[in-house]
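Hi everyone,

Forwarding the result from last night's run.
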Amino acid sequence: MKTLFQAAFELQNFFEKENWRFCFIGGLALQRWGEARLTVDVDVALLTGFGDEKKFIDALLAAYSARIPAAAAFARENRVLLLKSTGGVGIDIAFAGLAFEEEAVNRASRFEFLPGLNLLTCSAEDLIIMKAFADRPRDWADIKSVIERRRDKVEKSYIMERLTPLVERSDTIQLYPTG
């Protein structure tokens, strides 16, 4: 786990040197807000907007190794760049551009995972929204763990205000079970 945090810290230093806006999401954020579970990669939202992704892709591929062939083409098509750290840890960089994603980056805060190692993670609420939108069984278990751990501290109205428009554009996610 220490190697994972160190890979994230290395990436954070790179982003900050470039003056890029970002926050850690996924398993790292879950370590902060929910029940810790094994995670093998670093997930990060990088605020790129739309149409200017090439400069980010080029700079990242110059600094890190790609995990797949044709990583740049994959990233342009899927808005996710798959890299590995110098220590071999997987890094998934999601290109953020939606208003909700920008707000999540703006709301992010630092958390000390190890002595002297602070990482910028999304809020508990934004993690819940991202995991609900991903809509995988393990994400729903993660959401439950965040809600159980945070109890009354979760801003439910914030979540519903942001998640509802995302769900309305989705063909697969339902906020309220039917039947």
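Confidence is low (pLDDT under 50) at residues 173-179.

Cheers,
N.
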